[in-house]
Amino acid sequence: MDLGEWATLLAASTAAGWVDAVVGGGGLIILPTLLLVAPTLAPQTALGTNKIAAFSGTSAAVATFARKVPMRWRLLVSGAAIAAVAAAAGSAAVALIDREYFIPIVMVVLIGVALFVTARPSIGVTMATHPPTRRRTILVVALAAGLIGCYDGLLGPGTGTFLIITFATLLGTEFVRAAAMAKVINWGSNLGAVVFLGATGHIIWTLGLAMAAANIAGAVVGSRMALARGAGFVRAVLLIVVVAMVARLGWQQFG
Questions:
Q1: What is the pLDDT of residues 8-46, one digit of tens each?
Q2: CA-CA 20 to 30 A from 190: which of 8, 48, 162, 218?
Q3: SS3 166
Q4: Are 192 and 153 a contacting pair, CB within 8 Å?
């Protein structure tokens, strides 16, 4: 690749880190850019190289959120472990499943998310007045980690967004705390995908590590902005990103 292509990929990785830290969905920025710049790259190699960047950026976002947002670490680390195993299983299943059937399903779910958030402006803006029981919290985190973690390894777009909506809706968590929780689970799913794809030779390490540095920079800025500007900012970015994801997936499917 020439200097311009490197610059394009690093800029895309920085933007993806920012978006991922706030609401998720950074994969829809960086993966198409990677495949555009390197059209001969195998999809699994593009995914694996992207996952190195995503894992690094998620790690930076978790560290930033952890200093400001109280979290139940034992529960979330357990959830991250579940997500890691689920994502590795999803990555292993990529070759076995026709992914074109998943894109319309994801689009429908994303449209539902946008309509739900628009129709329920109170969701994610404040914490629930009646916190969920411990059993409910454990169940929601475990199921979200398993199902969405598997989806992250299998397909990927909007993983963080789905986690945030799940925690905000089912646990009554405001968006900033939901984003922090989502980053811990997403860290686990990224780790699982990196281990599997790295072990099977689907990572270009030099490119992945350069993109990781850019992704970390974007993630730190994004997580700090989410903390500083609050739930209203996260909600607005979430809606914008969901609409962009639907448009991008629609173009990919029907364009």
A1: 999 999 998 998 888 777 877 887 788 778 878 877 788
A2: 8
A3: helix
A4: yes
Q: What is the pLDDT of residue 234?
A: 80
- What is d(CA 127, CA 57) in angstroms, rounded to the nearest whole number? 27
> Whose structure tokens read 């076995």?
96
- How many CB atoms are closer than 10 A to CB 118? 12
Find out whether 193 and 92 touch, Cβ atoms under 8 Å.
Answer: no
Query: What pLDDT, in 10s, does the model give residues 155-183?
Result: 777 788 889 989 988 998 888 899 999 99
Q: Which residue has the tokens 């799940």?
A: 166
172 near 14, Cβ under 8 Å? Answer: no
Closest of 246, 232, 197, 216 to residue 46, by C-alpha: 197
Summarised one tens digit per residue, pLDDT across range 60-109 is: 999 999 999 999 999 999 999 999 999 999 888 876 766 566 667 667 77
